Amino acid sequence: MPELEQFKTPIAFVVTLTILGCIGGAAVGYLMGTYNPAYYRAMFPDVQPQRLDELAVGIGLGVTQGSFGGFVAGIVLAVASLIANARA
Predict the structure, then answer these.
(1) Which structural domain range is residue 50 located in?
(2) Which domain of life does the UniProt lineage start with (predicted)?
(3) Contact 17, 67 (CB under 8 A)
(4) Which of 1, 22, 33, 74 is an S-S bond match for 54, by CB 3.0 to 4.6 Å?
């Protein structure tokens, strides 16, 4: 049975990459909503233009997708770290 100390680094990988993905996704979403709002209008054609806040949609989708991507990357890195430590 692995000790709790062995899980500190993998958990830190997951938390750190999730937060970084969230921040990066928010930044990309902000830039997309600010400089290319037509992208979100094309993605959501059924929403009336005056009801669609492209900036809010960009930030919201960026945070969601970025945090998920960071979480997945963190899990992959954490599993790789655990496997490497188990073999050592």
Answers:
(1) 9-87
(2) Bacteria
(3) no
(4) 33
More reliable by pLDDT, 80 or 4:
80
- Within 1-88, residue ranges assigned H as helices are 8-35, 38-43, 54-87
In-domain check, residue 4? no
* pLDDT at residue 4 is higher than 80: no
Average pLDDT over residues 53-72: 97
**The model's pTM:** 0.86
Residue 78 lies in a domain: yes
Confidence of residue 5 (pLDDT cuts 50, 70, 90): confident
Residue 37 maps to a domain: yes
CB distance 43 to 65 below 8 Å: no
Closest residue by Cα to residue 63 from 31, 14, 28, 16:
28
